[in-house]
Specification:
about 25% helix, 5-stranded parallel β-sheet, 14 helices, about 525 residues, alpha/beta, about 15% strand, single chain, 5-stranded antiparallel β-sheet
């Protein structure tokens, strides 16, 4: 019997394993890995000069890189040939049905964090108002994870929103466009703040200096094409490190379906994807860290419940293009990054809580990804994108998750997840932000704003929320699922609320907190 069985190897699974290292721990996951690491050294511009053909690396023999041209849109980081393993077979292994929620899941080792934006933000007291835990409960675990993975950034004007980070590496180098935005903001800082807008450096789990045996970021702008960049933290790194030191046991190729509590522990049933047979694993404790959708499905399947509707939270998004006309046709910056350049906080009495934004450059994706974004011919769109790219930034604006009774997730008898999520922007925040940026020379219009479908943020949460007095399909402050003796929920499913900021860092810290309590309970 294992001391604990952990389902999943993403942010929650990795730090549950980290907390329990040295005990008799089993991590179960499908655990897909990239088929190989492509031979890509240097940035795309240098590669194009010394390589005649990059078709396999950028487009792929199955035309994976053109996925969004002829299939439903997915995140640009999930579709290139060497990154598509992240979402391999997910729709077959966990089918989802919805008319308004475009879900994505991952069965890769490390989960969707194989392609995350690497933004790390501490939840503040305001963010945790609906939780049965507070900042002091999470703070030591934030600190421990920060030291483990390394975080770059600055304790600047955004520190009151993101929390003070005591051991930051130097911030990432800014592009000329992002640097110009930050300089212009600082000149008109008082006016921006009167409108509820604050701009500063992002906190990123990206190394700007060597740390814990990992190299610093090289500004090669290959995040969309090459997996396992050692400078960008991936939970798979922690899992592999624990396995190499014989601190945990990892079994991949297993899809967990359900569990049942017995007198002597929790029995987990998983399908061996190689043989098709079902195998059972017994642990004193079960920690569910399969991602919000995966964990919810396992819990409902274990209860044979095809009627209950669980709540679900997701961050609605708005994409606002910003144009600096004087930079149209300027030379592209060769040594660049597809990661977030700046962060923005917007607060207004008419907005549903704080809104958070990230400003990105546009040099990471292929130009084919904008083929149909402008109302011109394909050739004209490609030409326009070439000259417009140095002059354009994208502000991705995130809204808090909406806790509405009409938003739900349900398991159907055939194993399909049925999800409904209703949301529509009134464009008040977008229009005010556009006016504010116009004053510093960056143009846009509400008609140019795009609204990715619900589910596109990949910030799913709240299906099995933590409550002070937990009831059915809820968890206590210790993460234990109501009605069970030793089943714990460690991922975003146990979040009580979903603020606008990225939740991954808090998933990690909360999972570490929960798993430490499990460790302390072991004899």
């Amino acid at each position: 019997m294992y001391d604990a069985v952990i389902v999943g190897s993403g942010p929650a699974g990795a730090f549950s394993a980290y907390a329990l290292q040295g005990r008799n721990v089993l991590v179960l996951d499908v655990g897909y890995r990239p088929p190989e690491i492509p031979d890509l050294e240097g940035n795309l511009y240098a590669l194009r000069q010394r390589r005649e053909d990059l078709f396999e690396e950028l487009i792929g023999s199955g035309f994976e890189g053109l996925h969004n041209v002829y299939k439903r849109n997915i995140s640009l980081k999930l579709k290139s040939p060497y990154m598509s393993y992240i979402v391999r077979n997910w729709a077959e292994l966990m089918p989802v049905e919805s008319r308004n929620f475009e879900a994505v899941a991952s069965f890769a080792l490390g989960g969707l964090a194989n392609a995350w934006g690497a933004g790390v933000f501490r939840f503040t007291a305001k963010d945790l108002e609906g939780f049965p835990i507070n900042v002091a409960d999470l703070e030591p675990f934030y600190d421990e994870i920060s030291n483990h993975m390394g975080i770059s950034g600055a304790n600047d004007d955004l520190a009151s929103y993101f929390g003070a980070e005591p051991h930051l590496l130097p911030p990432m180098r800014l592009t000329k466009l992002a640097s110009d935005i930050l300089d212009r903001f600082r000149i008109r800082k008082a006016g921006f703040e009167r409108q509820g807008i604050t701009i500063g450096r992002p906190r990123l789990a990206v190394l700007t200096e060597p740390h814990n045996g990992r190299a610093a970021y090289q500004y090669d702008n290959l995040e969309f094409y090459r997996p396992y960049n050692p400078a960008i933290y991936n939970p798979a790194f922690t899992i592999d490190e624990l396995v190499a030191r014989n601190q945990v046991t990892l079994r991949t190729g297993y899809l967990v379906h359900e569990y049942i509590e017995r007198d002597d522990g929790v029995e987990v049933t998983a399908r061996n994807l190689s043989t098709g047979s079902y195998e059972k694993f017994l642990g004193k404790n079960l920690i569910l860290a399969a991602g919000t959708l995966g964990t919810s499905k396992i819990v409902l399947e274990a209860n044979r419940d095809y009627e209950s509707r669980l709540p679900i939270l997701d961050n609605p998004m708005a994409c606002i293009p910003l144009f600096r006309l004087s930079r149209i046709g300027a030379p592209l910056e060769i040594h660049d990054s597809a990661l977030g350049q700046l962060n923005l906080i917007y607060q207004d009495a008419n907005s549903p809580g704080l809104l958070q934004g990230t400003i990105y450059g546009t040099t990471g994706p292929l130009r084919s990804d904008v083929l149909f974004q402008f109302p011109l011919s394909i050739w004209a769109n490609l030409t326009w994108a070439r000259y417009l790219s140095p002059a354009m930034a994208l502000l991705m604006l995130f809204y808090p998750g909406a806790g509405d009774s009409s938003n739900y997730i349900r398991l159907k008898p055939d194993g399909t997840l049925d999800i409904n999520y209703e949301w529509k922007s009134n464009q008040v925040a977008e229009r005010r932000l556009i006016r504010a940026f116009r004053r510093i020379g960056y143009l846009s219009a509400a008609a140019l704003c795009q609204y990715p479908a619900m589910g596109s943020s990949l910030h799913y949460a709240g299906t099995l929320p933590m409550k002070s007095n937990a009831g059915r399909y809820q968890t206590g402050a210790d993460g234990r699922l109501f009605g069970t003796r030793a089943v714990y929920v460690a991922d975003g499913a146990c979040f009580s609320e979903l603020p606008a900021k990225n939740l991954t860092f808090t998933i990690m810290a909360n999972a570490l907190r929960i798993a430490r309590k499990v460790r302390n309970s072991l004899k």
